[in-house]
Amino acid sequence: MLPSTDRLSAAPRTSFLLPSAKTLAAIACLVALIGCGEAKPERVAIYPAQGSITFKGQPIPGALVGLHPKNKLENVPTPRANVERNGAFTVSTFDGGDGAPEGEYVLTVQWYKPVKNGADVVAGPNVIPRKYSSPATSDRIIKIAAGENSLEPIKL
Questions:
Q1: Residue 102 lies inside a defined structural domain of this protein
Q2: DSSP for 61-121?
């Protein structure tokens, strides 16, 4: 004889409590916040620095200036700047125009003057003397001090 369907439906049921939508949303937010807690390294103090640079008495718009620390700084990118049309530049290390850590730096400069190539304009050769393109050969020293730094004009 087959069991009756009444007996099957009378079997004990296990009930599960499902969390509410608000509870699920709160859990998702907590997990997201915990996952976003990326550890950031301590940053060294940065001091604003700006200056101007010329080559043979003329501004060098688009030139790249690098400040290479004489004493190596751990976890600090090389401070750098792009030269504006009038020869002015503002030093950046972590963020645009934030400056550089205090210390002495060897200055490097590269300027790939634009040249016409048919209908296109492309970067030409570096027109700054080779000695200024490497911290090993450059003789220009820049000092960054605590506070605002208005650098002496650089004349190449």
A1: yes
A2: TT-EEEEEESS--TT-PPPEEE--TTSEEE-BSSSTT--B-SEEEEEEEE-EEEEEETTEE
User: Residue 90 and residue 150: Cα distance in Å, rounded?
Assistant: 10
Q: Residue 43 — pLDDT band, cuts 50, 70, 90?
A: confident
pTM of the model: 0.70
CATH code: domain of residue 68: 2.60.40
Question: What is the number of structural domains in the chain?
Answer: 1
Q: Which domain holds residue 144?
A: 49-155
Where residue 42 falls among pLDDT bands split at 50, 70, 90?
A: confident
Angle at 56 between CA 51 and CA 62, to 5 degrees: 55
**Phi and psi (nearest 5°) for 94?**
-100, -45
Q: Is the pLDDT score of 84 beyond 90?
A: yes
Q: Which amino acid is at 2?
A: L
Number of alpha helices (DSSP H) and beta strands (DSSP E) in the chain: 2, 11
- Specify the range with the lowest mean pLDDT, choosing from 1-10, 52-61, 76-85: 1-10
Exposure letters 58-76 (e unless 16+ CB within 10 A, then b): ebbeebbbbbbbeeeeeeb
- Residue 155's pLDDT is what? 97
